[in-house]
Amino acid sequence: MDKNLEAYLKSLDFDDEDIENFCILVPSLEYVEYQQALDCIEAVVKAGYPKDDIDSLIFSNPGFLVCDPKYIANKLAALGDDVEAKLKADPTLI
After folding, report:
1. Full-prediction pTM beyond 0.90?
2. 3-state class (DSSP) for residue 12
């Protein structure tokens, strides 16, 4: 895993076991670059999801970190209003 991405995840209070489990669930996390993952996070935040709660979204759906940020932005736009409530109800929408 990208060392910067690992450090970012640890800054969100995920421990080594959590990160290992994310990589088991989403093997491509081992290869995603930090900037791509950060761009995906920023797309979610820009769409209205609170940055303070991003850890819960990552915990529930770490797979969104490996997507194309443009794909994430389009999926979020298609959700319409209240992205926060929709993603908290179903994190797999992205």
Report:
1. yes
2. coil
Averaged pLDDT score across all residues of the chain:
97
CA-CA distance, 6 to 8, in Å (whole number)?
5
Distance CA 52, CA 81 (A): 19
Return the percent helix, strand and coil in the chain, to nearest 5. Answer: 75, 0, 25
DSSP 80: -
